[in-house]
Design goal:
- The chain is of the alpha/beta class.
- It has a single domain, classed as 3-Layer(aba) Sandwich (Rossmann fold), CATH 3.40.50.150.
- It contains nine helices and ten strands.
Amino acid sequence: MTDTKPRLTQCSDLIYDVGLHRGTDSAFYLRKGFRVVGIEASPGLVDLAREQFREEIVDGRLTLIPAAIAPEAGRIPFYLNLDKDVWGTISPDFASRNERLGTRNEAVEVEAVTFRSVLEQHGIPYYLKVDIEGADTLCLEALHEFPERPRFVSVEIDLTCFAEGFDCLVHLWNLGYREFKVVNQSLNKRVQCPDPPLEGVYVPASFGAECSGPFGEEAPGRWLSIEETLQRCLSVMRQQQLFGASGGKYYDTWLRHPVKWFRRLAGMEPIGWYDLHAKFS
């Protein structure tokens, strides 16, 4: 049977930053010597990116797509988070979750594009970073339509719900990814880029909790098998149920801070938000 999937060229110097936010990750990728396609839905953050990356946009090193990734192209509601702009989302469920966590939303209408159309226009990247609050799997689903794959992928993974985290891992496995890292973004401040570099050129960068940090072979930790990754995810899920912000047993009680300090003294990692990195074999 003939393969009818559209063939695209993988670009070894190209990175997709899906969920550009304030541009911290894109700035890092550009300094590493890569071209970037940045996708952002929030109108205010789009304006910020246009100003911040004015020279890179003119030079063609950064392509800015001011739109949300959605199942269909058109105009759709986007929920701006008025207290944490990193939590903007097209998902009403995520917007409701954010309100339960004490933040406020404002719905605005934005342009939407499909991730398939982005891939068809710009090609398959070397590294695909996705962090779009409840719509990450739309990007993974679109990859199934092409025979080529990014060498590396990272997505924010929800480890408070087994079904959602497992769904993301299944997509990556079916796409051909066989090695994984579960990276705690709360530990980003401890991460340093290796010198000599393993990706691009060396950059003496520092990282915060609201950026994805190093990627590819430079992502912190060792590569895990699918079995090790599942065990790691289940361990984090159990700790999220006790200590996490989304309904943790101790999170909304006076014990929150004593438990946090005890975990720190015991050398345990803080419970925060996680990225799942995958390497294509």
